[in-house]
Amino acid sequence: MNHEQPHWSKIQENSTVFGIKTLLFIYQVFGRAVFNVILFPVMAYYYVSNRSAREASKQYLSYIAPFLANEKPLSSFQHFLQFGDMLLDKLLVWMGKIDLSSIEFKTPSVVENISTSKRGALILVSHLGNIEVCNALRQRLAEVKLTILVNTEHAQKFNSLMSQLGSNTHAELVQVSELSPATAMMLSERIDNGELVVIAGDRTPEQAARVSNVSFLGHNAPLPQGAFILASLLKCPVYLLFCLKQQKKYEIHVELFSERLKFSRKTRQQELDIFVQKYAQRLEHYCIKAPLQWYNFFSFWHKSTDSTATKETKT
């Protein structure tokens, strides 16, 4: 089977505005308990009908299993159910229904440093946990504005929907299919104004040519270089942010990744590889903490040679 698989942006995040409103309606009228009951057959259908997502989930779970000590085997269907639960939380965050009382900042000193410095920064996130919870930074950091870069065509629709539903978020979703000079200039202006720019580092754009093959969960995986190249262009501090749901509460981990990414011409590729690998190590570390919360239902390893790598990143 060597046929080309649909890209994740077309098979995973293809929810329509109608679908989003339906999810909210069920929750608002019937509550979370009924929502969870309805979620089961919906995710069962998605699980059965979406073979590529199912196989990607199984591959990921098989790769992470050796890193999980003394735990019961995890199933792909559990993975799908967690994804459905996250979708509701995603909407509730943007509606202001999940606030600081539901969130614990595990590294408050780092967050405080971002606040007091008054400097713009780039925040590297992942598709582990609920990345929309990073909107809580807006509540924690008062008037700081967030610009969240996404790879899907639904950013404009989602911004419009949030306005219709009365969301008061200071975050803006911006669709970026490629990092053009115009995009870099726009983001640089926002950084200069003290804003935070958020971008995921664990998904490869559909036509991306620039990747680093790194060790991730014991196997070679292609991670995109785009976020790291952008960081070097913006000449600003770079932070990592991971959001994990533990029981009914979210934990936010914020780490300083680099005061500034700067690459020399002669060793640019090698330096990029080092930083992308460093990011992969931290992503792996947090995936092990919440293995069912990495919602990348795409054959993440299929573009690499996928030869087994040394498990030197286990933490």
From TrEMBL:
UniProt keyword terms in alphabetical order: Acyltransferase, Cell inner membrane, Cell membrane, Membrane, Transferase, Transmembrane, Transmembrane helix
Entry's Gene Ontology BP terms: glycolipid biosynthetic process
Main subcellular localisation: membrane
InterPro entries: Ac_Trasf (IPR014548), LipA_acyltrans (IPR004960)
GO molecular function, one term: acyltransferase activity
CDD domains reported in the protein's UniProt record: LPLAT_LABLAT-like
Transmembrane segments: 25-48
Keyword tRNA-binding included in the entry's annotation: no
Locations listed in the record: Cell inner membrane
GO CC annotation, single: plasma membrane
Name recorded for this polypeptide: Acyltransferase
Naturally occurring in which organism (per UniProt): Paraglaciecola mesophila
